[in-house]
Biliverdin-producing heme oxygenase (Pseudomonas lundensis), 202 residues
Amino acid sequence: MTSQDTAQRPALRSQRLNQITHEPHQKLDALVKAHKPFETRENFARFVVAQYLFQSELQALYTDPSLKEIVPDLPERCRAEQAKADLADLDTEVPAPVAGAVNAPSKAHALGWIFVSEGSKLGAAFLIKRAVALELSDTFGARHLGEPAGGRAEGWKRFVKTLDGLELSAEEEADLDKGAVAAFERFTVLLEHAYAAQPELA
Ligand code: HEM
């Protein structure tokens, strides 16, 4: 971060989150691509394993009643079921849980994780186009990358608007940031785990 970046703190919370996760996002994007998920269905299935693990770890957050009060359609936003169906389409076993999942985070910390999970639906718009070459789609094998009901951009805008409108203490604000950064770290761990499980495909 340059001194200019430090001086210019974004006005909106979501912009701050975008800024602090920019580098982790770039690294993760490069790591995803390094595993060549669109080269074969087997490679893609490993990516789905990571997505499934991530989404299933977040299921408790997506269904949390106090978070649902903030984001009413939160449970419908979770993609664990779609990722599970994708695994079945790809003849891939549902993976065992991996130690180190997020556990009972504070409300703000949880929202940091959900920010990342929801944001990943934007990149998914690009990924699903590439999955078509493997004859996968939002009804087979790449369901979890599909357009959410009500629209991808619209769903994201609604989430961000809600997030930006919340009243948070300075401590919660810091917790939110930590949650977002932790989510990127976790996805990285799960991605490496998923490909390491079948080293010949990595
Ligand atoms: C687990 C978290 C995430 C993963 C695994 C992920 C993965 C990716 C990948 C692989 C791409 C490249 C697609 C391509 O070039 O074909 C991408 C693009 C993108 N992602 Fe993410 N992403 C995540 C989180 C986020 C978040 C939190 C945001 C927004 C706040 C976001 C916004 C975007 C956008 C706008 C693009 C397309 C344009 C660009 O590269 O900037 N992603 N993502």
Observations:
- DSSP finds ten helices and no strands in the chain.
- The two ends are 32 Å apart (CA to CA).
